[in-house]
Description:
By secondary structure, this protein is mostly helical. The chain has seven helices and no strands.
Amino acid sequence: xxxxxxxxxxxxxxxxxxxxxxxxxxxxxxxxxxxxxxxxxxxxxxxxxxxxxxxxxxxxxxxxxxxxxxxxxxxxxxxxxxxxxxxxxxxxxxxxxxxxxxxxxxxxxxxxxxxxxxxxxxxxxxxxxxxxxxxxxxxxxxxxxxxx
Length: 148
């Protein structure tokens, strides 16, 4: 695969933006002769697939994981061991299904947490109302400990 030009990357981002739910524009399924290269690429290329894309150099740094990141990893591994999901499903849900805005806007383990919550609700291990109540409970507990 050859590298994309800056113009192609901007066109791709703009085209994908038209398909995102928050910016949704009513469209009908295009006929095969209506799908040009740009539209095909936007439909088939996921947010995390950045191989060959132009970017600025990035300095790699060793980072010690924070406690919430370690807890998230352990929780997600336990979900896998218990058969709630497998690695491919988790990766698909946290890297592809989120859309570009959420993928680029959340920290790595933040996407793991959100994916775990969505899968637990989608597969009816917990009800959405139970999850919301638990989040409120944890927020209140955190606010109380922060005020001490």
